[in-house]
Design goal:
With 261 residues, the chain is α/β, with parallel strands linked by helices. It has eight helices and eight strands, in the order βααβαβαβαβαββαβα. Strands 2-1-3-8-7-4-5-6 form an eight-stranded parallel β-sheet, with helices on both faces. The structure holds manganese (II) ion (MN) (2 copies). One manganese (II) ion is lined by residues 90, 113, 115, 117, 129, 191, 234.
Amino acid sequence: MTITLLGFPWDASSSYARGPALAPPIIRSLLFSEASSPYSVSGVDFREVITSSDFADLPENADACRAAISARIAEVTQASAKPLSVGGDHSVTYPILRAIKAAHGPVNILHVDAHTDLYDEFGGDKYSHACPFARAIEDGCIDNLVQVGLRSVGPEQRAFGKEHDVVMLGADALDKIPYKKLVGPLYVSIDLDGLDPAFAPGVSHPEPGGLSTRDILSILSKLPASPIGADIVELNPEKDINLATAHVAARLVKELAALMA
Ligand code: MN
Ligand code: MN
């Protein structure tokens, strides 16, 4: 199975700081830098499994942008390839999941994040980066949703999650991840603020007390199915230090590509 790498430079659905729209070309340049190895931890060369890429601009209008994202994911799945997307803020995941549902039906999702992203609306925007998983649940895109790394959950999101059988785990509960729920079709969504800011300072909403890079690689190695798609979102290059977070994103591209191949 081949993989298409997509860049979604969108951050107008962020509630606080712009910046994630700058991330895709930075991640791409690190991936193809002569200073970095192309190999995953398990020894897969990402250049052999990511056979195409699409880093085209998106429309400035939010509705048109989401439609364009869904259309590009649909193109990939119709070509019997798997989409591996880099954001962009987390709002890009809802239009991705709509197209994934059209191709695969409801999917199981591993969602790494400091936040639940289950708000009904945020700042009057139902498509904010605080809302993608609420919209995806309402649309029937998700079978099991397993959230890992949470550490800023309000009572409303807690209640919504409980009502919809979302598994909500803090960064101290990695031994409780129900891998049995993460069988195929499996999708992986990684918000880089799920990591501790010590490992990933380049995010708009840093929350100390998060996962290490090693924690995430360990979780990925235990997944019982090969993901049919994945995204890595919320890199904010304007907050990053010495490209530390961008390097984490590039590492995750290589590891996810190895798992998806
Ligand atoms: Mn987050
Ligand atoms: Mn998020």
